[in-house]
Design goal:
Elements lengths: L3 H11 L14 H19 L2 H14 L4 H10 L2
Helix pairs in contact: 1-2, 2-3, 3-4
Protein name: DUF2623 domain-containing protein
InterPro entries: DUF2623
Pfam families: DUF2623
């Protein structure tokens, strides 16, 4: 079994920019969710602005067609 969430998380932590919705269609929802969380966490570490990173996570969640509740839970539990 592959850890798609973990792979997406690591990709998000390393990414310099977020992919377009067209470029992520080949990935499963777990990978995309991991990417969104990794990318927004990296943004928070760079800027120190939690609100900005949450906003970006929301934008990417909508762009990638993810379940917003699953992404929002991350921000609630780690706030």
């Amino acid at each position: 079994m592959n850890n798609h969430f973990g792979k997406g998380l690591m990709a998000g932590l390393k990414a310099t920019h977020a992919d377009s919705a067209v470029n992520v269609t080949k990935y499963c929802a777990d990978y995309k969710r991991g990417f969104v969380l990794g990318y927004s966490h990296r943004m928070y570490e760079k800027t120190g602005d939690r609100q900005l990173s949450a906003w970006e996570a929301g934008i990417l969640t909508r762009r990638y067609g993810l379940d917003k509740e699953m992404v929002m839970d991350f921000f609630r539990e780690n706030g």
